Amino acid sequence: MGYALARAAAVHGHEVILVSGPVSLEVPKGVERKAVVSAKEMYEAVEAHVDGLEMAIHSAAVADYRPKEVHAQKFKKSASEWTLTLERTADILGSMREPFGFRGYLVGFAAETENLLENARGKLERKGCDLVIANDVSRADIGFDQRENEVSLLFKDGRQQSLPKAGKQDLADELLSIIVADKQFHE
Ligand code: CTP
Description:
Layout: H1 2-11, E1 16-20, E2 31-35, H2 39-48, E3 55-58, E4 65-67, E5 86-88, E6 105-112, H3 116-126, E7 131-136, E8 148-149, E9 151-155, E10 160-162, E11 166-167, H4 168-185
Parallel strand pairs: 1-2, 3-6, 6-7
Antiparallel strand pairs: 4-5, 7-9, 8-11, 9-10
Bound molecules: cytidine-5'-triphosphate.
Cytidine-5'-triphosphate is lined by residues 39, 58, 60-62, 64, 89, 91-93, 108-111, 123.
């Protein structure tokens, strides 16, 4: 969805910076890509671009945890069991308002397997978003690694809108129009 949204925005004449983890997708024409390989690198790349940004759309499925200990060499097996300790990564979207100080239009995604709208509304409020795009990731036919998606939009003012299942590029084009219209309406 991130690549489809970046493409839609570039086609509409916006200046687009796409901060992306390693994927096998082609970078859309006119889009400047910043390649990152970890949640920490994505956090730093986003923070570095907040100044002068009008709108930020956070569609990445960022890891919430990372291994606490990283070995420089191959880890040789010994015991029959091994407990791996994970630590939390920083929440990039949740850092946009504070500490990054972003004042523009903020869009988040919510990937949920239950209580879709309720959980998505909670994320909108907690992370200071203007809009959250909610995705039911329990469905195998849409979302991650699929060509199609079906989403519900939750706006800050309480409005809600569901879009029918569609190809990701068509959906991204429609989402971008809705997002730009809502942003302009609130300016
Ligand atoms: N997100 C982020 N940084 C993270 C985790 C998530 O910026 N470390 C962003 C995602 O890009 C998305 C939004 O936060 O826009 C919601 O992500 P999601 O995975 O649905 O939820 P979490 O915030 O991880 O919350 P939970 O694990 O409780 O569902």
